[in-house]
Design brief:
Helix content is 39%, strand content 8%. The protein has 312 residues and is mainly α. The protein has a three-stranded antiparallel sheet. The protein has a two-stranded antiparallel ribbon with strand order 1-2. The longest helix has 21 residues.
Amino acid sequence: MNLNFSFRFLLIFLSITMLAGAQSLQKSYLLYISQYHEIAEKQQKEHGIPASIILAQGLLESGAGESELTRMSNNHFGIKCSDWTGPKVYHDDDIKGDCFRKYDRAIDSYEDHVNFLKTRKRYAFLFNLKPTDYESWAFGLKKAGYATDPSYAYKLISIIENYNLHRFDLGLNYADNNKNNNSVPDNYSFGNMGTIQAIPDHQVYKINKVRCINALPGDSYAVIADIFNIKEKRLREFNEVSADTPLQNGDVVYLSKKRQKADKTIATHIVEAGETMHNIAQNYGIQTKSLYDMNRMSYTEGAQVGQVLKLR
């Protein structure tokens, strides 16, 4: 094991330890990893896609196999119909009633995911990357348009690092890694997988190197502030919202102050309908005032559809 990886792993372990009082690793994620890591490792050996990326995408896109779409279709990677001639299901996503591919088995979804990446030119450059370079793969998938979520790469990287999925890229044995802080508890039953429910924990990840979560149903700024031991007023300041601004399910909530510029891999943003300067700033982990200043705009101006905004 090289020193850089050892140092990164130490940082990951320490960050998980410090967060232990606020969150625990989700059992549904641990079960999913146990079920599918061997498939991901096999696909890495055969096709050069990092096993950690495969698992992280599966976890994120399928909600650890528990999303409504996955339960209906065995679709673990959110792949839509496009040129698909097989069975289909319809599920609200970017548009109402989006068409998604349906599979008989989860393994069919995993195999089609590999085929999807290997047969589309826009993903070809990814296969020039090292199969252990999960960060470049995560940003490359976002760049190639796999997902519309601006924070998609950050979410993948966060899942990989929180659950130490990189060990599968290195060919380490799953059973020999129970000493890592993400092993399945001894009393956790695998007998009846249909009855296991996800624990509604807040999954901490990073956007632009700033720790954040997504709000869950029933959350408020007061609730999140209490969970993470932050004053509510301070939490609202981090997220640049007033004392009476409500929190919506799925909203990004930053746990520390946002940065003044976006990540160096993201230079601009094209404004879409319905976007505001504030939610654009939230999506990229930058301060709203900085976004205005970088674009030499008055603080009273709104974002215009089609406008190209500088992010750094």
